[in-house]
Amino acid sequence: MNIPKPQEVYRHFKGNLYRVLAVAKHSETGERLVVYQSLENESDVYARPLEMFVSAVDKEKYPDATQLMRFELAGEDEMEDPDIDEFMRCETYTEKLSCLVNMKNRLTSEKLSLLACTCDIVLPKGDMIEKYEGLKSSLALRSKYEGTRLRQ
């Protein structure tokens, strides 16, 4: 059995992407649980028994499922996104802010969550506009103060 590792991204058989946060141990039963977070809505964090996480899709219940396993490790091609790559190459919050504004028309909820995650920013609840504005204002605030940090 392949045990998921923290930070790996898995595709659920229904299509959504999730980042594994940890493989935890139930304090009373000792059962191993996979703790994972939605890339579409980072406030959605789930725990599922490891055995269930790595199980096959129930073809009787889901006959139209095209994926063999309930969760499959996402391929590199699924994770590649030029906007994300450009954002990650930015060295300052000012650059990140400019990059975010430039990609506004190409943003999805999932992409917003990924961008926020790379900066350890928690997006506000709400629709895409509220999330975008939340990330934009957080980057603007960090940009304002990034040049005033003490240097050793």
Structural account:
By secondary structure, the chain is of the alpha+beta class. The protein folds into two domains: 9-76, DUF1653-like domain (SH3 type barrels), CATH 2.30.30; 81-146, no CATH class. The protein is 36% helix and 18% strand. It has helices at 50-53, 76-79, 82-89, 93-102, 109-118, 128-145; strands at residues 9-12, 17-25, 32-38, 45-49, 71-73. A hairpin with a 6-residue loop joins strand 3 (32-38) and strand 4 (45-49). The protein starts with 8 loop residues before the first strand and ends in a 7-residue tail after the last helix.
* Alpha-beta classification: alpha+beta
Count up the domains: 2
- Percent range for helical residues? 25-40%
Radius of gyration: 18 Å
Number of strands: 5
Q: Rough shape?
A: elongated
Alpha-carbon distance between the two ends:
48 Å
**Strand residue percentage:** 15-25%
CATH superfamily of the largest domain: DUF1653-like domain
CATH topology of the largest domain: SH3 type barrels
Largest sheet: 5 strands, antiparallel
- Ranges where pLDDT stays below 50 over 5 or more residues in a row are none
